[in-house]
Amino acid sequence: MKWNGRKTGIAIGSGVVLLIFAYLVWGGIGNNLVYFLTPTELLAKGSTVYGTSVRLGGIVEEGSIRWDADRRELRFRLEDESAKTVEVISTGVPPQMFNGGIGAVVEGVWTAEGVFRCHNLMVKHSNEYKAPMPGAKPPEFYRELFRKQQS
Amino acid sequence: MNGVVGHAATLSALLLAALGAVAAFVGGRRRDARYVTAAQRAGVGVFALVALTFVVMERALIMHDFSVSYVAQVGSRATPLFYTIISLWSALEGSILLWALILSVFTALLALSSRRQSKSEGEGDVDPQLPYALGTLFCVNIFFLLLISWPANPFRAMSPIPPDGPGPNALLQNSPFMGVHPPLLYTGYVGLSVPFALATGALLAGRLKPDWPRVIRRWTMVPWTFLSLGIVAGAWWSYEVLGWGGYWAWDPVENASFMPWLTATAFLHSVMVQERRGMLKAWTITLIIATFLLTVLGTFLTRSGVLASVHSFTQSPIGPFFLTFLGIVLLASLTLLAWRGNALSSEGRFDAALSRESAFMINNLLFSGFAFVVLLGTMFPLIAEAVRGVKVSVGGPYFSQMSVPIALMLIFLAGVGPALPWRKGSLELLRGKFRWPTIGALAVGVALAAAGVRAPLAWLAFVLAVFSAGLLVAEFVGPTRARHATTGEPWLLALWRVCASNRRRYGGYVVHGGVLVLAVGVASSATFRREAEWTLQVGATEQLGRYQVRLDSVWAVHESNRDGVMAATTVSVGGRVLTRLNPRLNYYKSAMEPIGTPAVRESLREDIYLVLMAYTADGKHATIKAIASPLVAWIWLGGGIMGLGALFALWPGGAGAPRRDPVPEPGRPRARPVSEARV
Questions:
Q1: Interface A:B, Cβ pairs < 8 A
Q2: Contact status, residue A36 vs residue A55, Cβ threshold 8 Å
C-alpha cells in the first residue's frame, strides 16, 4: 500500500464530502431543536424566546378551559409547581381526556402578546406502565352514556 | 412454586452459560475437541433451561399466580387469554426474558451448526473460529441471564399475595398486533448478536476463512429479515392503534430499531464485495460490530428510562448495567480490531468508478451516513442535557430533511446497482440497459405532472422508483428471454428456473422491489395525506375529498377487560356506501385516560381512517378526525414483498454461492498461525 497521488485525491475528496455532510447535519439539528420548558422557565426567558419553537409542559389549571365552538378555538392556562401560569391558545377540538388538572405538553411559539400559540396539544399519556394510584378513579364520564342506553 | 422453579431455572441457565463460555474459549485455545463438544452441548442446555423459565412464566401468567411479582404487575383475571399470553413482553422484566429466550435459541442453533462442522472436519482438527464465536455468544447470554436473575428478576415472591392485578399496559391490550410485532423485532434484534459473535470469533482466531463471508451473511440475513418485518409490523401497529394516522414518528425506540437495520443492511452489501473481490474486510467487520453495539445502545436508551418514548417502561435499575455492558463490548471490539486489523487487509482493488463495487461503496456510505444522522438526532437531547443542561428535543423536520435526500439516492441505487457489472462497466452496456427504464420513468413523470402532482420530492421519488423498478425487471426479463430462446421452455417456467438458478441474486432483487414499493407508499402517504376534524350531530354528514362521512349513532359497550364508546359512521363515495366504520375510545382499568381505536378501511389506492376524538355524554354529538392517506397500504405490501424476497434468497438448495473472482495468490497475506491467538 503506497501513498500516491490517487490516494491523496481520494482522501481529500472524502474529507470534503464528510465536511459537507457534517455541516448539513449540524445545521439540520440546530434549526430543528425544540426546547422543553416549564411555565416558570418560559416566563423567565421572556422576550428572548419569542417566535422560537418550544415545548411547554405543565398542568392544565382547573377551571381555566374555555372552548369557543364557532372559532374552534381552545384557551386554557398551564401552570407549574411555582404557580406561574401561561395562557395557551390552540385550535381544534381537545382530546377526550383533556381536563383541568391533567398534565399537558403544548408545542408552539411564545408570542409578544403574552400568549402561547400552540399547534400541537399533547395530553401527557401515562405511557409508562403504571397502575392507578390507590383511590384514583378513571374518568367515569362515559357511564352516563350507559345509563342513558339502559333507560 | 412457579416463582421458585422459574428463578432456579434462570440461575441454572446462568451457571451453564458461564461453564459453556469457559469450555468454548478453552476448547478454541487448546484446539481440544472435548471442550468444544462440551460447549456445544451447553449451548443446547442453556436453551432448554431458558425455555423452561419462559414456560414457567407463561404458566404463572395463565394460572394468574399473583405470588409471582411479574404476574402481579401485568396480570389480571379479566384480561382475555390471548392478551394474558402476550403480556409476558408487556413490561421490562418479561421483555428481557423474551430476549433471553430468543438469544438462547440462536445460541443453540450456532452450537448445532458448529457441531455439524466439527463432525465434517473430523475430531482431530479443531478450527477455533466457531468455538470462539460460541464463547462470545455465551457471554452475551450471561449478561441477559444476569439481568433476569437479579436486577430485573420477574420471579420475585409477592407478600402479601394480591388477589388480582391491574392487567397489562392498556396500549398493549388494544391490538392483537402486539402478539406479532415484539417477537419479530426481538428475533431480529437479538439475532444480530450471532454475526457479531462470528466476527469476534474470526478476529480472535486471527483469520477469515474463505467461506466466512458466505456463512456470516446467512447468519445475518435471518435476523435482518425478522428485523425488517418487525419494523414494518411496528409501523403498522402504530398506524392501526395510536390514532394519529401516521406510522413513523422518529421516536427514540423506532430509531433504536432502525439504526441497526441500516448498518446491517450496509453490512449485507459490503460483505458481498468481500465475498466476491476480497475487499472491504475491515470495514465489513466494523459494520457488523457497530450493528451489535447499536442494538445494545438502543436497548439501553429505551429500557433505562433516559429517553422518554411511547415504548419506554418505568424508571428501572438496569440502566447502569446496560451502560457497563456497552462500554465493555465497545472497548473489547476496538481492542480486537486494532490487534487483528492486519488480518483484514484488502486483496483486490477498484478497477473502475463505473462498477458494481463502486455502487456498493456509495450504498455503504449512504446507509452508514443515514445511521449516523439518526444516531445523532436520537442522542442529541442526551448530549445537550449533559453538556449544556438544557432540555431539548430534536424535531421531526430534522429527520425528514436529512433522510429524504438519502432515501432518494437509495431508491436510485436500488435499480442501478444490480444493473452494473462487477469490475468495470461500459457506457455502451449501460446505454442499452437504461434506455427503456428511462423512457418509462419520464413517461410516468409527465403523466404525474399532467395529473396534477405538484410536490417535487414526491414526484422525484415516484420517477426514480419507476426507473429503478424498470432496471430490476430487466434483470429478470433478459435471462428469462435467453432461456426461453435456448430451451424452448414456457415463459413462466423459464422465469422460475432462472430465479431458482441463483436464489440469492433474484431474492435480493425482489427485496429491492419491495423497498421501492414501500418507498412509493411512504412518499405518497406523507405528501398527499389530507385530514379534517368535525364535531358531528347524529345524522349529520361531512365531506373529506371524495368521502362523505355520516355519524349514525354513539353508543357504549361493556367488555370483560374494558368498556368502550363507539361512534357508528357510514362512509360513502359519490352517494354509494363504501363501508361502515366504528372508531372507538376504550376505558381500561389500568389506564387513567381512554385509549382510542381508530377505524380504518384499507385499500391499495387510499385508506380512509377515522378517529373518535370526543363525544357528548348525551350521545348526540361526536368529534371525529378523518384522514385520507393515498397508497399507505403499499408500505405494508412492500414490507411483505421484502420478506418474501428474503425467504426466497434464504431457502435452502439451489446454487447460492456466486463464484469468487480469482485473486492473484502471491500478494495474498497469509493467515497467522492460530496458536498465536490469545483470549
A1: 133
A2: yes
Residues of A in contact with B592 (CB under 8 A): 97, 126, 132, 136, 138-139
Residue B147 has phi, psi (to 5 degrees) of -60, -50
Scan for cell 459537507, then name that residue: A20
- In whole angstroms, what is the distance from residue B178 CA to residue B87 CA? 9
| This prediction's pTM | 0.90
Residue B193, number of CB atoms within 10 A of its CB: 26
The packing angle between helices B252-277 and B181-191, to 10°, is 40
Establish whether this prediction's ipTM goes over 0.90: no
Distance of CA B361 to the CA centre of its chain: 23
- Chain A interface with B: residues with Cβ < 8 Å: 1, 17, 21, 24-25, 28-29, 31-37, 53, 55, 69, 92-97, 123, 125-132, 136, 138-139, 141-142, 144-146, 148-149
Whole-angstrom CA distances from B173 to A151, B79, B315, B591, B636 are: 31, 8, 21, 11, 22
Q: Is the peptide bond before B160 cis (omega within 30 degrees of 0)?
A: yes
Report the largest interatomic distance among the alpha carbons of chain B, rounded to a whole angstrom: 87
Inspect the interface and report whether the beta carbons of A33 and B394 lie closer than 8 Å.
yes
pLDDT tens across B155-209, in order?
A: 999 989 999 988 887 777 878 888 899 999 999 999 999 999 999 999 999 878 8
Alpha carbon dihedral A81, A85, A89, A95, in 10-degree steps, equals: 20
Which residue type sits at A97? M
